[in-house]
Sequence to fold (329 residues):
Amino acid sequence: MMTRGDSSWFDEAAGPLVRPYAVTGGRTRSGRTEFDMISLVVAARTETDRRTLDPEHLTILSLCRQPISVAELAAQLDLPMGVVKVLLGDLLDRGDILARAPAPVARLPELNVLQAVLDGISRL
Amino acid sequence: MASADSETTADTPRSADELPLAVKLLIAGGFGAGKTTLVGSVSEITPLNTEEVMTEASLGVDDVAGVEAKTTTTVALDFGRITINDGVVLYLFGTPGQERFWFMWDELCHGALGAVVLADTRRLESCFPSVDFFEGRGIPFVVAVNQFDGAHHYTTDEVRGALDVGDDLPVVLCDARERESGKEVLRSLVLHVMSRMGAPAAATG
Fold:
């Protein structure tokens, strides 16, 4: 095998060895769907072909058995949101998850939603 | 969203429409004004921290693989959650205080119902940029004056004058550490959003 002695091929100047998007193979876009930081996702089925998924995909699937936001997933996975969005795009394209975008800004705010929010805060 | 640890996973949703609708409020203000404290006092979860890495991708470059000298900026965000009912989940996001993160504010503002600008009377000027930002974007906001121990207590009119904002902008005094106080701040914001739509709120218990 190759022996390099004490010198390694990386050094301080190389920067962090795991770039933020290494886990997505360098991809920074999430396929067909744009995820918002508060898009909610949920697992769409209980079985899937796990062999073709990365460990991060599987962790996401285990975390979204109940609806959960992109931001919460990112916090729990300790990955940047942009990375999580790419991984979610993979899962969405496979049909492994469902995603709901937040209330769209064009129709916002809907009064019944605002009233519900007001009531919900009051009940805290 | 209550505990989901039961063995029998709830029926798998058949369509995305069965998911709750997510809405968002922003908590802005200068460094140390108490943003995370306010989020924590009303959130049903311990505030979570996540980060967004901004790369050239944010500026329109499709693929960063192989880019040697890519610059990245990491922006940390604190946020909390309030489950409103089966159909609506409210998220509260603290905005990153530093002005060099304005680009992040744009994404944060996308779809936000409105914003709370927390003012620290020891450094009132530190909330001016937030006020300017939301005024410029037409995003409804209220100013909440966090009453720090030992700081001079101003009246809401004094604060309104210092910020040079009109009577139609709600200014409320609060203690960001207290849940009831935090609730009042959020209520005043939602009521303000509703009044801007010309709709009176129904009485709530």
Q: What stands out?
A: Chain A is about 35% helix and 10% strand. Strands of chain A lie at 40-43, 68-69, 97-100. The radius of gyration of chain A is 19 Å.
